[in-house]
Each structure stands twice: as C-alpha cells, then as structure tokens.
Design a protein that fits this description.
Layout lengths: L2 E4 L9 E7 L6 E2 L4 E6 L4 E5 L4 E6 L6 E3 L3 E6 L6 H15 L40 H10 L17 H5 L6 H6 L18 H16 L2 E9 L1 H12 L7 H15 L5 E3 L4 E3 L5 E3 L1 E3 L2 E3 L2 E2 L7 H16 L5 H4 L4 E5 L18 E15 L2 E15 L5 H16 L7
Parallel strand pairs: 12-16, 16-17
Antiparallel strand pairs: 1-8, 2-4, 2-7, 3-6, 4-5, 6-8, 9-18, 10-11, 12-15, 13-14, 17-18
Helix pairs in contact: 7-8, 7-10
C-alpha cells in the first residue's frame, strides 16, 4: 500500500520547509534510511532520508518551493500503484493534521524500521553506538563507506545522537581521524531543570504600570556628571556631630525638591487633553522589597530639612519591608527618584513612574581623575540620568533642571538658604 510522506517538523520553531534539492526522481526505488532530499528549515539545511521502502510515485514539492509542515512531500508505494485517492485525501487532510502532527504520518507500518530525519550539525568527537552496541549509521552512509573502503568505525557522526550520515562519509579525511578521536567527550553531570512560581499581585501591577509607561510615554534620557566632593564634606560634617545622620540619597531628595520649584515643567504630568503643572513637590522614593518595588512619597519635600527627609525615608523603608505601607503612603507623587548607587551601579536609566513626567536614576559615587584649576586631581563623581516624557518635557527643560540640581549638590550650602 502506498504511503504519504509529509513535510516533517525538523526544529522546534519550524513552521514551513523548503526543498533545497531532490536526490530521487519519480520512478526511482527508495529504501528506508536512503537520502531522498535536502530540506531547508528556519535553522539549517538538513538531509531527509526515506522512512519507507518502495518506489517514489509522486513528488509533492518541487525543488526551491516552500510549504507548511505536514504538507504532502512525496508518495512512496509499489510500481504502478494507483495513488489518485491518496492525492485527494492528502489535499483535504493536510490542514487539520498540520496543527498536531510534528512528523510524517504513515498509513500503515513500514516493512522496515523508520529512520528519523537527520539534521546537519557540528561533528561530535567519535562515532556513537546504540544501547545494543551497534554502530549508529544510516544505510546510505554504510553503503558509501563500503564503496569507498572507509572504516566507518573511525568516522565521527554529525547526526542525532552522533549518528553517521552521508555527509560525514563524503567529508571524512583519514588523516584527521586520530585528532578527532582524541578530543575528549563531554558528558553532562547535571540535567535541564527549572522552577516556576505564581506571579504576585504586586509584580503584576508593576509589570502592567511599567509596560504602560514605557510603551505609551515617549522616553528620552539626559545624563550628567556631578562633583560630589563638597557634598561628601558637608555630609561628614553633619554626621560627625552625632545629632542626626543623613545619607547622600537624602541630599539628592532635597536638591531635587528645590530644583523642581524652579522648573515646574519637570514637576508635571501628561493628562491626555491637558498638562498638569504641580505647584507642590511630592517626591516618590523607589524602595526595593521582596516582591518587587514600592514608591513611598515624601510630601512637600522642598519645605523639609535634610534630617526630616532622612527620618521619613527610614520609616518608609521599614514599613515597605514589613508590608505596612498604606495607599496614602505611595499616592500623589509628582516626581520620582530611583537610587541604585548603594548596589555599586554607576549609571542606569529608569522607566517613568506614571503619572510623573520624569524620574531621576542615581548612580554610585566613584573616584575618578577630574580637572580643577587646570590640574588633574582625584575627584568624586556621581552620574545621574533623567528620564523624560517627551510629550511634556523638552530637552532644554530637562537639561536646565539637571544643571540646577548639579548646582545644589556641588554647593550644598545653597540648600540651607
């Protein structure tokens, strides 16, 4: 009985295949494992060997043509067999079968074992053997090796599991056998494994909000270096007194709050039909927690001193880690700061925390050579990057804000005025 040979799925992402070349023509006798065609997939060109014994009665795909997987590739049967019914059946069955069949489907058992399609891959170190000790090689490869007088046990196989195929015999060089065989065989000790966990509601909210922000607001980024020598000296002087302890982040919050008062375009948000320019300054501080990221808000930050900002941020951080933050703690931000400097990050860009028009990404302070008074001296530099919603903030407005921020941090005494 004639068998339908369909376009096989030769890779996990393959949806269609192209017949690069036919090695058989209608009327030729074919045997199981004998090379029939070369099929080009989305990843490579692979030798395709016949899964059936018989005569090639019909070629369904001409060389150079592309068809979906499971389309009629060829029909193999007995000489003179009527295949009209099979052709009609294939035309109607191909579409539904294609959705589920990953490989050629036989109507009945073939008289000999079916050889799987063989992919062209990088040669392995030495021939592979099946569990029964027999050499793994296609019948065509064995025949060619016998004709050429090649010891097939010295040929490295490039097929599935080290199986020797036609190309291995054709490209075999006796002089290279020793060096190929001498290469060590890698045997993996581990196994492929993974774990999955259900996405938390917090992570779902973060994913939704940041996706909406990134793909809705046209982001652009402005980066500036800030000399932190004076800020470091001022912080040391304050902390050495022992009454209060402030961080560099507290200084950045205060400097941003004062700069926002001078640049209301940055302290704004896009409202669709209008732009809201906020006269108050509520700064969101990104805080990392186990399940993701929370942004508690320091309200009226421009009116608060460094000590008060520092104390408030510490309380928020503790509440965030203990999951005690309330909605009132994270609502109403007009500008956001994300600081990764404490993790050794020198520079990064952040996604805008809607409805804000901007977010400031703060890197760590790094000691680098700087030029002062015409001389190269050690300096402490911090990089900041402002992410802007271009619907609201233009480059000049963002740059002006950064320049004011830089002035405050490089001259911290100005924040006390």
């Amino acid at each position: 009985m004639a068998e339908i040979d369909r376009m096989p799925k030769l890779s996990d992402t393959m949806t269609e295949g192209t017949v690069a070349k036919w090695h058989k023509k209608v009327g030729d006798t074919v045997k199981v494992g004998e090379l029939m065609a070369e099929i080009e997939t989305d990843k490579a060109t692979m030798d395709y060997e016949s899964p059936y014994n018989g005569v090639l009665l019909h070629i369904g795909v001409e060389a150079g043509k592309t068809v979906p997987i499971n389309a009629l590739l060829a029909i193999v049967g007995k000489q003179g067999e009527d295949i009209t019914a099979l052709l009609k059946e294939s035309a109607t069955a191909a579409a539904p079968v294609a959705a589920t069949a990953p490989a050629p489907v036989a109507a009945a058992a073939a008289p000999a074992p079916v050889a799987a399609p063989v992919a062209i891959a990088t040669p392995v170190a030495e021939p592979a053997y099946a569990n029964n000790g027999r050499l793994k090689a296609s019948p065509l490869a064995k025949k060619i090796a016998e004709d050429k007088g090649i010891d097939i046990t010295r040929v490295a196989g490039s097929g599935d599991g080290g199986r020797i195929v036609k190309r291995d015999i054709e490209t075999y060089t006796p002089g290279m056998a020793a060096s190929v065989a001498a290469a060590p065989i890698f045997v993996a000790a581990g196994t492929e494994n993974y774990t999955e966990e259900t996405v938390s509601q917090m992570r779902k909210t973060i994913a939704r909000r940041l996706s909406d922000s990134l793909f809705t607001a046209p982001h652009f980024f402005l980066t500036m270096d800030i000399d932190m020598d004076n800020a470091m000296a001022a912080r040391k002087g304050i902390n050495d007194k022992g009454d209060v302890k402030i961080s560099f982040n507290d200084m950045v919050v205060k400097a941003c709050a004062m700069a926002l008062r001078k640049h209301p375009k940055v302290n704004s948000s896009w409202r669709g039909e209008s732009i809201r320019y906020n006269e108050h300054v509520h700064i969101g501080i990104a805080v990392a927690v186990e399940d993701g990221l929370l942004v508690p808000v320091v309200r009226f930050a421009n009116e608060k001193g460094l000590a008060q900002i520092g104390a408030e941020v510490k309380v928020f951080a503790d509440k965030a880690k203990n999951k005690k933050l309330q909605p009132v703690d994270w609502e109403g931000n007009t500008f956001t700061i994300s600081n990764l400097g404490m993790f050794g990050i020198e520079e990064f860009t952040a996604i805008i925390n809607t409805p804000d028009a901007c977010i400031l990404a703060v890197g760590g302070i790094k000691q680098v050579p700087v030029v002062k008074n015409g001389a190269v001296v050690p300096g402490n530099v911090m990089k900041v990057t402002l992410s802007c919603d271009h619907r609201v903030v233009d480059g000049a407005s963002g740059a002006a804000f950064l320049q004011t921020l830089k002035d405050y941090l490089e001259n911290p005494v100005m924040m006390l005025v």
